[in-house]
Amino acid sequence: MNRFSNQKSLRVFLAVELSLDLRRKVVELQCQLRESLPMVNWVRPESIHLTLKFLGYVDASLVEPVLTAIEPIRTSQPPLTLEVQGLGVFPHLRRPRVLWIGCTGDIPALFKLVSRIEGAMEPLGFPPEDKPYFPHLTLARIKHDQSQVGGVLTHSGLLEQPRNLGIFHVDRITLFRSDVSQSGAEYTALRTVPFTEPGSHNSI
Predict the structure, then answer these.
(1) Beta-strand (E) ranges in 92-134?
(2) Where is this motif: HXTX 1 (predicted)?
């Protein structure tokens, strides 16, 4: 029996979970930034992840087909290594809505992985993203009425200061469920699929 058959629809996305060590460093960074930016809404450390593909609300019956569709990726995708560094905002400093830390390193391989996921999801009815993929970890969200945040970031030089949280190994994909409430989004890992391509940390 499908474990999701008793639910009508789920809000889901594919992402990479952070290691415990990287999550600890993210917490330290948030604490440092909080002194200058007490007015923003900080993302709970356990909720921070690297999004690969947001699927949105889907019928629960599609969860297993989604997992089946990424099976060829799981068995042929080599692990890749990223470096987490560099602060920035979306969409711009005049009216920032998201504060993030970026990813560098094996970005071409990451783009290829995301492209493979897009290709696997399209036959299931999930269209490709209309915006270029930009790898990042969301640290905080900024409300419309917090217009002073852009000025604080500009004059404090926080975005120019070097920030490097170290290495981030991508060797598995997790399907997350997102439940939205007044207190924010809560993410639950539904299934994690480790890469088993020869040379992967998870290969036998």
Answers:
(1) 98-105
(2) 49-52
* Beta-strand pair 172-181/184-194: antiparallel
pLDDT in tens, 74-126: 999 999 999 999 999 999 999 999 999 999 999 999 999 999 999 999 999 99
List of domains in the chain:
9-194 (3.90.1140.10)
Name the catalytic one among 136, 144, 169, 201.
136
Nearest Cα neighbor of 80 from 204, 203, 196, 168 is 168
Please state, in angstroms and rounded to a whole number, the distance separating the CA atoms of residues 184 and 41. 10
| Active site annotation includes 136 | yes
Known active-site residue 49: yes
What residue type is assigned to position 22 of the chain? L
* pLDDT tens-digit readout, 119-173: 999 999 999 999 999 999 999 999 877 879 999 999 999 999 999 999 999 999 9
CB 121 within 8 A of CB 53: yes
Cβ(71)–Cβ(54) below 8 Å: no
Burial 21-46 (b: 16+ CB within 10 A, else e): ebbebbeebbeebeeebeebebbebe
Please give the radius of gyration of the chain, using alpha carbons only, rounded to the nearest integer.
Answer: 18
Report field, pTM of the whole predicted structure over 0.85: yes
Of 49, 92, 169, 201, the catalytic one is 49
